[in-house]
Design brief:
Strand order of the largest sheet of chain A: 1-2-17-3-4-5-6-7
Largest sheet of chain A: 8 strands, mixed
Distance between the termini of chain A: 53 Å
Mean pLDDT of chain A: 96
Radius of gyration of chain A: 21 Å
CATH topology of chain A: Nitrilase/N-carbamoyl-D-aminoacid amidohydrolase
Shape of chain A: globular
Oligomer: homodimer
CATH class of chain A: Alpha Beta
Helix content of chain A: 25-40%
Order of helices and strands of chain A: HHEHEEHEHEEEEEEEHEHHEEEEEHHE
Structural class of chain A: alpha/beta
Number of domains of chain A: 1
Largest interface: A-B, 89 and 88 residues
Number of helices of chain A: 10
Chain lengths: 383, 383
């Protein structure tokens, strides 16, 4: 069985483990059982016709006396590129718009309030090629580009907040950024959040195309809760998640583009650790499929030049602050994961575990400030 | 199957999954396969006679031109208490000394260089009772107590660094601390590291007994590498792991005492995330068994008073910076996990992933300094 065929850990366990063991294995691996969310039959049918996986789960919180539940439904969309990477740029973008548009229609049928797409969703993940053209032509204005206008229409039509991670062209200076545009359910651009940490690993030195973001750790107050966007490689940096949480994020999205050989064993760990440590929900979104490029490229590993860099393994999932998580979407298919979460769970877990209260942040601020100075003396005890 | 009987996720998967799927499941869940470490037959026999589990694994690094391998063997010891909790204090301590002494003998046969015991290893984890007596009598001087003398003998006899987490009595002020004493393989006390973060959750408000540590993030330079100790609840705080790493830790031990209902789904996540994020090895050690106390106590959960607070699930394991990990020790038995690691892997993973270089720590120092001030204005964007 090749890594491109294997559908998911969850399905495999379900198929082979006896019931009593399955329930213990799930408890240890995935925490408290995630409940199934009933979705309309019409949505299931539409997903089947349009050939993508649709799954629904929910996280509940305990009833409280003074606060009503704060239930929100998020939708995570994972998809392959639609046209070959050498098709004309505008055709590629339009084809992806159509595909995602039809998935978002189903999200609307499922009552999704906030939808998040994968990193650089309108384009192939071409940064491995080191070619500037035609890939920089996929960059658009965050505020007024085609893609943002498309998302604004979706937002208005479906009364849905849209998180749209894209390659941004800042027209005034000609600079590029890896940016998530956050569009309110009113259709207004609420703001944008640029990728804070840039990988220089394997096929990707993405600083060939764009540099570290300058939007800090912005959190967006939407009608459905306070959300933030930690783009891709930022998930490896616990401080990045932490600082979004310090600014009040209740749900942190992690739109990504990452392949099996590089990161698959990290994928189930990092977003989940962030949900636990920060008493919030995290939503990890990855693209699927293998993308072929016309020009060959090397990977700095001594191997021959090639035309693709491996399989994007999908597996999008949501992690909760109580250390539970949903199963992932498929490793191989387009999909929509609909998750209802009661945001009251965040404060309940914070009251239970008290990581913010026991965090001693003033001391860390002081230690970190010292640690970044040139005259830093590490605290090393010798005999 | 009750949670006290279920032996381990790894054994269950091995027993039921077909080979092709097993290898995919392991790859996704546990990363690159951990190699078995050959241990002497005499050690296996001694472990069997002494009724504890013995497992050995190794992590290799790629050969380098300028640095020889830096192989070190660590031993993690997990065990039940030996005598009932109402036996005389000194008898309880002596019995545990004997038990751990016989396990350490086997560790020596396996060539272990650094051994780490579980949190507060000389005593039952009695902090749930809220009784001061007789539990505070288990506290000893870190530098000159019985237990430290015992560990110094072990260290000298076996040429082994000993990490001894214990309840410390600071004689001058009468204060108690939750402390790990680090004893050099020469037998000298190298120093101590006090628990930085104190839980207030479920059965445990441990600040009834001791307060937050004042030893910062000390790292100990031993003959076998630079080690640090993040005690128990500190594993929930990514900043805690991070700051040990900023001070140069190559191996971070996490001696713990934690039970199933509370934390079992977090256990495989947190130490492993820390190893990935900080390019270092982490060693998670938990005790096993259920401990019964003569006096009943309540748990603040509306339930009846009871005499124990649940099953310590063992499952001690080592996580590597390449996102792989060893299988865990049993959930139910005393055990010794021997792991050989080539510390060169840390720098190799740092060179590959570059989290320290891409970490933007100066900006976080600035942001965190602002975030802890009373006049902090969170970065929240509104429509």
């Amino acid at each position: 069985m090749s890594a491109c065929e294997f559908e998911s850990v969850e399905k495999c366990l379900e198929a082979h483990l006896p019931q009593a063991e399955l329930s213990e294995v799930r408890r240890v691996l995935f925490g408290k059982e995630t409940l199934k969310l009933d979705l309309p039959t019409s949505a299931a049918e539409a997903a089947s016709e349009r050939d993508f996986e649709l799954k629904g789960f929910r996280f509940e919180a305990a009833p409280e006396q003074l606060r009503p539940p704060r239930r929100v439904r998020v939708g995570l969309v994972q998809h392959r590129i639609v046209l070959p990477t050498d098709a004309p740029v505008l055709d590629q973008v339009s084809a992806v718009h159509s595909r995602v548009g039809e998935i978002v229609e189903v999200a609307a049928m499922c009552g999704v309030n906030v939808v998040c797409f994968q990193e650089a969703w309108t384009m192939p993940f071409a940064f491995c090629t080191r070619e500037k053209e035609p890939w920089t032509e996929f960059a658009e204005s965050a505020e007024g580009g085609n893609t943002t206008r498309f998302c604004q229409e979706l937002a208005r039509k479906h009364n849905m907040v849209v998180v749209s991670p894209m390659l941004e062209r800042e027209e005034l200076h000609g600079t590029l950024w890896n940016t998530a545009v956050v569009i309110s359910n009113t259709g207004n651009v609420l703001g944008k959040s640029r990728k804070n940490h840039i990988p220089r690993i394997g096929d990707f030195n993405e600083s060939t195309y764009y540099m570290e973001g300058n939007t800090g750790h912005a959190v967006f107050q939407t009608q459905f809760g306070r959300i933030a966007v930690n783009i891709c490689y930022g998930r490896h940096h616990p401080l990045n998640w932490f600082m979004y949480s310090m600014n009040g994020a209740e749900i942190i999205f992690n739109p990504s583009a990452t392949v099996g050989a590089l990161s698959e064993a990290m994928w189930p760990i990092e977003a989940r650790n962030a949900a636990i440590a920060n008493h919030c929900f995290t939503c990890a979104v990855n693209r699927v499929g293998t993308e072929h490029f016309k020009s060959e490229f090397t990977s700095g590993d001594g191997k021959k030049a090639h035309h693709d860099f491996g399989h994007f393994y999908g597996s999008s999932y949501v992690a909760a602050p109580d250390s539970s998580r949903t199963p992932g979407l498929s490793r191989t298919r387009d999909g929509l994961l609909v998750v209802e979460m009661d945001l009251n769970l965040n404060r309940q877990m914070s009251d239970k575990w008290s990581f913010k209260m026991t965090g001693r942040y003033a001391e860390y601020a002081d230690e970190l400030t010292k640690a970044v100075r040139q005259d830093f003396k590490p605290n090393i005890v010798k005999e």
